[in-house]
Amino acid sequence: MDPDLPAGMGGFFQGMLGDLLRLLKTDSPIQWDLAVQLAQRVASGDAPEPNVDPVDRMRLEGLLGIAELHVADVTGMTTTPTGRPLSIVATGRAEWARRSLEGWRPVVEQIAAALAPPARGTPPPAPDEGEDEMAAFIGQWTTAVAPAMIAMQVGSVVGHLAERALGQYELPLPRHTDAELLVVPENARKFADDWSLPPDDLFLWLCVHDVATHAVLTRSHVRARLEALLVEQARGFRPDPKALEQRLGEAVSGAGGDLADLTRLLGDPGAFGEIEDTPEIRRVRAELSALTSAVAGYAVWATDTVAARAIGARGAIAEAMRRRRVERGDEERVAESLFGLRLDQDAVDRGEAFVRGVVERRGDAELAKLWVVEGALPTPAELDAPGLWIERVNLPPLDDLDAPGEPA
User: Fold this and answer.
1) Positive or negative torsion for Cα 104, 115, 146, 47
2) Alpha-carbon span 187 to 54, nearest angstrom
């Protein structure tokens, strides 16, 4: 028996908790290797992954150049921070999961640190009278198990997301890989077959959408604001040891060691606690929702504008993408919940209505200020009233208002 475990714990439960405790020897708020390994296993179904077809890779490389030219023309922005061309990485599902985690690592580690219990290293309280040995042991998770549990949540969520991912921006999270875009050709071809779409048209659509999103999220002030909001929201999370005890008990009795069942039981971020409902957290969530809706709506608008010029199956692809968002599965919802995002069709429609409202009132030149001018990110109220945003970003600087007038 593992000396770190109290007597009476055997079988699968002993093995799982013993492995977790051995993995806890880290100063990091998340067990990163565990997250990556679990994500890859879930993404691949724990089976060898075939190589990407070289024909798909070459096709995507050619289409990416076309997409960059069109997006730069429509948005008026460089598509990378340096202005150098992007490269495309055609991957399998497991590789998408690994590369996504690595790209998100800085922000994921900040979120994990915010989620971690505040009194790390403090001796756990004594169990209540009558509390059995198992409950007392599990009750110590706030100072011991959190890094491994956060890793299991993140790994499970990203692995399941990879099973259906088409391109890089399944989630509008900033990545610290400024010069590449990921595409999963296997998933994209299946999606094209399911909806009877021309594969090359779909590939171009994906390239345009992700290039437009990339152009926004790699701007330093946009990335900084989005990361700050994600971390602020995570600080409002309050873990519930009793919920963990119940969920681990379900894993023991129901999962039977099966990877899919275990990740389903432990991958839900709401299983271990909840976000506080305070005025400050509500403000943060409203600002985060407004920003991510604006990013998603802008990408849809840019993609549709380019598609009207260059993609024959524009209407069919747009409808398929809309249905995909409406019918998104538990994997996408859990991923959004973990990072505090809301990316359903209503959220995208809200952002697109704002973008089109600005264009209708003042044209594309006015819209360019949205991401180029620091301080021009829309507030929640402005997202629902584009005229308010236009008025604010066109106010004269305070220095001009305070300056004395010319003598008569």
Assistant:
1) negative
2) 15
Report d(CA 334, CA 264) in Å as an integer: 10
User: What is the residue range of 389's domain?
Assistant: 22-123+139-395
CA torsion through residues 94, 99, 104, 105, sign:
positive
> How many angstroms separate the CA atoms of 190 and 204, rounded?
16
pLDDT in tens, 275-322: 778 899 899 999 999 999 999 999 999 999 999 999 988 999 999 999
How many CB atoms lie under 10 A from the CB of residue 310? 17
Cα(249)–Cα(111) distance, integer angstroms: 26
Q: Is residue 128 part of a domain?
A: no
> How far is residue 401 from each of residues 383, 386, 395, 405, measured CA to CA in Å?
27, 24, 10, 9
Asked if 333 and 388 touch (Cβ cutoff 8 Å), the reply is no
**What are the two backbone dihedrals, phi and then psi, of residue 170, each rounded to the nearest 5 degrees?**
-65, -35
In this predicted model, what pLDDT tens digit does every residue of 82-120 receive, in sequence order? 888 899 999 999 999 999 999 999 888 888 887 766 554
Residue 407 lies inside a defined structural domain of this protein: no
The first and second tokens of residue 70, run together, are 């069109």
Is residue 230 included in any domain, yes or no? yes
Residues pairing with 234 in the sheet: none
Tokens of 125: 């309280």
Q: Which residues contact 63 (CB under 8 A, 6 or more apart)?
A: 200, 203, 204, 207
Number of domains composing the chain: 1
| Alpha carbon separation from 45 to 87, 223, 257, 294, 331 (Å, rounded) | 28, 33, 15, 35, 15
Q: Computed over its alpha carbons, how large is the radius of gyration of the chain?
A: 24
Report whether 317 contacts 205 (CB < 8 A): yes
Tokens for 401?
A: 């208002």
Residue 405 lies in a domain: no
User: DSSP class of residue 269?
Assistant: G
Q: How far apart are CA 370 and CA 216, in angstroms?
A: 10
